[in-house]
Amino acid sequence: MSKPVVEVFKLSVFAGDSCLVSSLSLALKRGEAVTILGETGSGKSLLAQAIMGALPKELTASGDVRLFGKLNPSRHEREQMWGQQVAMLPQEPWLSLDPLMKSQRQLSLVEELVKQLDAKRARQQAQGSLSAMGLADDGNKVPSQLSGGMAQRLAYLCATAGGADVLIADEPTKGLDDSRKQQVIGLLQQHKQHGALLTITHDIDVAQALGGEIIVMRQGQIVERGSAEDVLNTPRSDYAKALIAAHSQDHFPIALKQGNAPLLKVRSLSKQRGNKQLFHDLSFQMGEGEVLGVAGDSGAGKSTLVDIVLGLTECDQGQVERAPELGPGKMLKLYQDPPAAFPREISLGQSLEDLCQLHKLDRSQLPELLARLRLDEAILARRPSAVSGGELQRFAMLRALLMKPKLLVADEPTSRLDPIVAHQTLELLIEQTRKIGCALILVSHNRRVMNQLCHQIVDLSPLEDTQRVPVDFSSACLIK
User: Fold this and answer.
1) Which of 40, 176, 239, 250 has the largest CB neighbor count within 10 A?
2) Helices in 213-325 by DSSP H: which ranges?
3) What is the pLDDT of residues 274-302, one digit of tens each?
4) 248: which residues sit within 8 A by CB, 6+ positions away?
């Protein structure tokens, strides 16, 4: 029987005196998969960072890690393994990609430095990989010109290009439409055949497809572990039962309010990117408390559309009329990748205090929002790098709601959240926006959720890919 290539013994992670991950052990062999499944903020990503030797400096770890037979290798020794023996796909692609380097160059550089290919061969290999991932026309773009899902795919290619035996994939399918999600799952399954795979996810579909062992975590503790078949089909712990049940849980449809004065009117909007027509002759309007869904595959133009609505990008043709209530500070956006919206070197508490002072915000609602968004007040003392992506996503939502906007764009607002927290967070978001008379634009790949929660949906998928009946639009349709 083969020996484990990764072994973790009673690993704990601390922020000061607070224990974030408690005494976790696992072993990973070639040809095997271990999936860490669990609640947002339960310490799943901290485990991956501790194995890689890349914990934020304000966090500490105890316990032992053995990599390829070497017990507790130093940071330098672990760095020598990066790319060739151990690779990590981090949760946030924006923090792993060079913001100034073109996509193809980033990927070919891995081929050159890790696999020692000559420049010509590295470029050819990179272009082939980009094409296989549906990024053939995006090699000359820098990360800021890519959608969230496109950046996620590029980060995956960069992480795996070196051919490492061990792949640690942290939320590898977040922000991807279903077809791209299935593609990445297939690649992970291929890696498992010749290497070892540690996947961190809240997505039940991913855990089921990868099989192997599943470890369920909550509040830094293991609450259940076993084979994927046993855990997913006959869970024993109350939390695992609730998590799996929430995967298919329905939201309560919201009552449609009629007669609201329009806050926003979009008329005959068209936009082209390169040779690709994103949308053409698109029109809709929104009033206070209404929810508009924007659907479509990764790279279809969803973020471009909402940026035009917000005045951040210009359209090719058409007009956006905004009511006087949509003045400065009253149109806000929850970004798909929240780390990009926070300064890295100051605490979340200081960031929030600066916002409250600048805009003279009422802090009285803060304790209630923290509680309802399931955020521990202790995270206020940490920097963005020391909290999970899901916690940062919810904190960004709290910050936006304190501003009491009249138009809020939520770009994949629950992509980093486990099913239980995602369900609660979406319903809170809709409740709060209706309470303050705010129009909400919800950008999502989850059409089932949008069908339940949105008054109307703009679908940017190609018409041949949708079963909906279009209404006077050639590349986008209003379907509800």
Assistant:
1) 176
2) 228-233, 238-246, 302-309
3) 788 899 999 999 998 899 999 988 778 89
4) none
Q: Quick one: pLDDT at residue 252? A: 58
Rounded to whole angstroms, how far apart are CA atoms 264 and 321? 6
Domain that holds residue 66: 6-246
The answer to whether residues 229 and 331 belong to one domain is: no
Q: Which of 188, 222, 246 is the last residue of a domain?
A: 246
Q: What is the pLDDT of residues 106-147, one digit of tens each?
A: 999 999 988 889 999 999 999 999 999 989 989 999 988 888
pTM of the predicted structure, to 2 decimals: 0.79
Residues 350 and 209 in one domain: no
Are 291 and 394 found together in one domain?
yes
Report the pLDDT averaged over residues 417-441.
88
> In this structure, what CATH number is given to the domain that contains residue 164?
3.40.50.300
Average pLDDT of 46-58? 89
C-alpha angle 450-411-401 in degrees, rounded to nearest 5: 95
Q: Is residue 253 part of a domain?
A: no
Residue 365 and residue 316 in one domain: yes
Helix (H), strand (E) at residue 282:
strand 276-287
Specify which residues 267 forms β-bridges with.
319
Which of 182, 214, 246 is the last residue before a domain boundary? 246
Chain mean position to CA 110: 24
User: Please, what sign has the CA dihedral across residues 210, 91, 412, 221?
Assistant: positive
Q: How distant, in Å, are the alpha carbons of 54, 240, 412, 428 from that of 386?
A: 11, 26, 22, 25
